[in-house]
Amino acid sequence: MTIRAAPAVTWEWLRRIGQGRGGFYSYDWLENLAGDDVHNRRVLFSAAPMTAGDTIRLTQESYPGARAGLSLLPVAQVIPGRSFVLSGWGVFVVESLAPNRSRIIIRERPPAPVGAVETVLRNLVWEPAHFVMERQMLRGIRERAEGAPPPTVGHVAASVGLFLGGGFIIVLLTARRRWGWMLLPTVVAAFVYLATGGIEATLAGFVACGVPGVIWTVRSRSRLLTLTQSLALVLLVILAASDAYAAIGFLVGIAVTATLAVGWPILQVIQESSAVTA
What we know:
CATH topology of the largest domain: Alpha-D-Glucose-1,6-Bisphosphate, Chain A, domain 4
CATH class of the largest domain: Alpha Beta
Strand content: 5-15%
Distance between the termini: 68 Å
CATH architecture of the largest domain: 2-Layer Sandwich
Structural class: alpha+beta
Order of helices and strands: EHHEEEEEHHHHHH
Helix content: 55-70%
Number of helices: 8
Shape: globular
Oligomer: single chain
């Protein structure tokens, strides 16, 4: 990732990565959705120089399964202002291209997968997810090093869209008495909020887990196909959009608004026809 900032500035942001530090400058709402309490900072904070032997946390120490080598990664080597090696992840390098231009390179060499199951999981689950998060991390460092303003307005609008989506799910499932479909989104939203306090992740988790209930309620056929198409759309947005949270929030808000705009008049007509018939 090429950055229009001095190498020293880029390095200061890069060396602060880690849970409980500067974060990972990626989609913290997705990390929080998994209960990983990560909050990305946008202002440099006081931090001791990185040295070999330091530990970088990927999750909070209380996270289930957290242990050295998996979520606690040791710093194996540091060349101040230039690079560091994070055991279990790879080498992070800052190259100087000009006085006010630099480049970050991340090089990874993971061990070969053991067995067919690990091969499938790595290629179909881990690699795509890791690519999305690490690409956004590079973008996040670039934004901060270049001094880009935080996307406040877009995220507020996206949160409003997801809030509308959550409200629509509650009203629909309650009106149709689909109480069972309310359990999973409620539990997920409560877990995410209690574990991380992330409002964006809480909204996203509730809507994501509530969508299957909506599809099963309003669709009589092709439910699995509709659910698969919805999931494919979300994955496409995450891959293509420069800010996936804003894009997904806008899409949900537009979908709910369009549904109400089209569905409400139709409902009124049906009710009026029923009244006339009666």
